[in-house]
Every structure is written in structure tokens, then in C-alpha cells.
Amino acid sequence: MYHFLFFLLGSLLTISIAQAQSAELRIKNTSDRMLTVKVMNSNNGRLFKKFIVYPRASYTEYFATTGSFFLKTKAEYPGREPVYEKGNPFRVYVGTDGYSVLTITYAIQESNVANPLEGKSISRQEFERDN
Asked: Among 21, 18, 6, 11, which residue's Cα sits nearest to residue 62?
């Protein structure tokens, strides 16, 4: 059994004087699996953005406006079954007084012991849906 560890390290509101502000979602993949990440709009359930985070790598996605989202992820490793998950909703803020900076770290731990921090497992079919 695979346990997918999902850590939301923090949401920081950063004050900025720059006119072109963007919220940031930083994904750190500490696993040996390739992550396909879908950022889904919480209000309508539709796909907002899709990207890949390679093993032992990071990726930053930028948001121009305030909104609520959740992530769907697929973690793949050659010769093993993919692991699919749906994360909890999160909110990003972009305003004249600052913007959100969120960091999420993903790790895969091969274990038979349940992990209370793991997200909700989803099927491949649910992952593939973009609405």
C-alpha cells in the first residue's frame, strides 16, 4: 500500500510595492515519482492549470487574481501503480496590500501503516476529469 504525504508548509501574506503582483503556489516534489498536478477551481470544479513536477524538483505556479482552488495529483514511477489524490481546498489572495505565497511539499512513503496527514485517494477516472 502506498501512502501519499501532503504537507502544506505555509501560507504567507507578503507585502509588496510592485504593481504587477502575483500569488505563488510552490510545489516541492521530494519523491522519486513524477507528479502531474491539476489546479482545479473550487467554485466551479473546472481545470485552471495543469503542469508536471519532476522527481526531486520544484515548480512555481503564479496567480494573477484572488481565488479558491484544490489540487488533483498523479504520482508515477516506472513499474509501479500510479497514486492519485485530491487535496483540500486552499485560497490565494492578490491585492494592493500583498499576495499569498503557498508552499506544498509532496513525498511518497511506501508503507502499510496509515498516515493521518494523507489526502483523499481518488480514482484515475476522477483525476482525468477536468470539470
From this structure: 21
